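Q: Sequence in, structure out?
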Amino acid sequence: MRRSGLAALGIVTGLVPACAHAAACTQEKATYRDRDNAYELAFSPVQLDAESNTHRFKLNVLGTKLTLDGYVTGSAPVNRSNGILFFNCPDGDVTGKDIADCTVWQGVVYGQTAGRIDLLPAQGKDAADAILLPDLGPSIQQSKAYAEAKAKVAPWDVLEFKECAK
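A: Exactly. Output:
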């Protein structure tokens, strides 16, 4: 079943409870889960002075060994938290076609805190209560990763704060 980004936005603003624990965690240490507890998204820190990436994350298909790698970069002149999620990308010198072939999802990453939708909080800032990745579910379901993981459900586009890494 395909859900549009606007439908997912309605889910975030209407149904996701505010999470008091997220405020005690910085974004680069936050972990989130989808509503079916089938996927987990975990952020990790990046060196902001060495890369153009503002965040790094992994999306784990729970109950399997499958992990997808993701990055968030800023954009100009309009500031956006642009995310991209990869599966089995080759190492070393790669072409644009190689990257396109291993890209599972890309789009704007939104954070929701106290009922307000905004861009993903920066490293060092309080973690969002929930993360919205518009059209993540359909993108995963149509990817090679979904078949390889033998996944039974696609993730929801909204992932709620679960815990803070130590």
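The chain has one domain: 5-17+28-164.
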